[in-house]
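Need the bound structure for FE2/S2 (inorganic) cluster, inputs here:
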Amino acid sequence: MAGEARGFQKVANKGDLKEGGLLGVEVEGNKIVLALVEGKVYAMDAVCSHEGGPLEEGELMGHDLKCPWHYALFDVRSGKVSDATVWATDQKSYPVQVDQSTGDILVNLGGGAATTSTA
Ligand code: FES
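Answer from helper R.:
Posting the output first, comments after.
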């Protein structure tokens, strides 16, 4: 079966984000939250693993994103839940590229989850 190889696709522009800010985007029906920390862009699932809170409406504190509903903390670099809020589980995070000339933000949804077989 020839599955569609999903590569990097444009989801936003760096001009849409401000330092320490969040932006929700939708990619192929997946809600993704982008975060800009120290000039770097990170992407992870925007639907909280706890009860589905909208992480793009959360609060960014350094690399930690706080869910607006029950305040689970996730590291935007890895999607990992903080040791302080273990009642939530890790979010999926995605590789990000930024086009240095245009500022376009590209995310690769097919990049992670090596153990998940959907073929
Ligand atoms: S829905 Fe995010 S912490 Fe509960």
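Comments: Residues 16 and 99 are 14 Å apart (CA to CA). The chain is about 0% helix and 40% strand.
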